[in-house]
Amino acid sequence: MQDLLHRYIFENLDARGELVQLNTTFNEIIEGHNYPDPVKHLLGELLAATCLLTATLKFEGDIAVQLQGDGPVKYAVINGDNEQNMRGIARLQNEIKGTTIKDLIGKGHMVITITPKKGERYQGIVPLDADTLSECLEQYFTQSEQLTTRLWFATDVTEGAAKVSGLFLQVLPVDKEKAEQDFIHLEALTNTIKDEELLTLDATTVLTRLYHEDNPRVFEPQAVNYKCTCTRDKTAGALVNVGLESLLEEIENSGDIQISCHYCLKNYVFDESQVRALFH
Ligand SMILES: [Zn+2]
Q: Of 33, 55, 142, 184, which is most buried with the most CB atoms under 10 A?
């Protein structure tokens, strides 16, 4: 099954929705990192959240959604772009005890950074006051857009077969009273979905099961992919900053320079002649 994001509106209701279902992208992000299960769940939700958020914003460029705090998870981040290319990482500093946002991140906040290809960079900061990521994001939407919004996530972190799904529902900024009524109706319907259904049923079945009486109009889905932006050239650029002397010292000790990408764990190797060439 391909990783897809679906957007939809409703014929007679003033609300819009999104459904994202991911497996390959999620597996690639957590593969090889040996994250504890609660961290995998967190990264899965953060990944789905970033896809949903990216689809609501009209921009061309990069997005980063980062959680940072003083808890066992020092930070967790998903980086993506408007074409739904995603990568991500979590950094641990202590042993994990618990599964809520507070247990994992501690006292902290969520930072959403949008870097458009043209124009000003935007940064939004939300305190992590709630127990779940969905509640924190709902606060973000209320704060930044003054639009009632709900999110639902379901994750399965089975090794090699991890899955995450996310649902998004938001009022449209038209007739306020009608929109709020429509939202309450759709929210009640959406609350009936079970995690199991969200993870195992295809998008058409999920949307038909939830909203068949409200005629959702579903747009062409957008593919979501894993893509790390690291390159040998960027790695070489970082080496130049280290300085030739330190690098030659390292080569004397280890034979060559090895640098792994923190995100995708790809290993870049530079021998002495390659290192010297960087400085000419
Ligand atoms: Zn990489």
A: 55
- Distance, CA 276 to ligand 1 centroid (Å)? 24
Q: 264 alpha carbon to ligand 1 midpoint, in Å?
A: 4
Looking at the predicted structure, is the pLDDT value of residue 280 above 90? no
- Rounded to the nearest whole angstrom, what is the distance from the C-alpha of residue 238 to the centroid of ligand 1? 14
Based on the domain organization, do 140 and 222 belong to the same domain?
yes
Please report, for the domain that includes residue 188, its CATH number: 3.55.30.10
Task: Give pTM, 2 decimals.
Answer: 0.94
One domain, residues 273 and 217: no
What was the pLDDT predicted at 270? 97
Question: 35 CA distance to ligand 1 centroid (A)?
Answer: 17
183 shares its domain with 274: no
CATH number at residue 267: 3.90.1280.10
**Whole-number Å distance between alpha carbons of 170 and 254:** 55
Using one digit for the tens of pLDDT, what is the confidence trace for 141-173? 888 888 999 999 999 999 999 999 999 999 998
pLDDT at position 66 is: 98
Structural domain count, the chain: 2
Domain that holds residue 166: 4-226
Ligand 1 centre and the CA of 234: distance in Å? 10
Q: How many angstroms is it from 227 CA to the middle of ligand 1?
A: 8
Ligand 1 centre and the CA of 229: distance in Å? 6
Residues 55 and 120 in one domain: yes
Q: Catalogue the E-assigned strands of the chain.
A: 4-10, 15-22, 61-69, 73-81, 85-92, 108-116, 122-127, 149-156, 163-171, 216-218, 222-223, 225-226, 257-260, 267-270
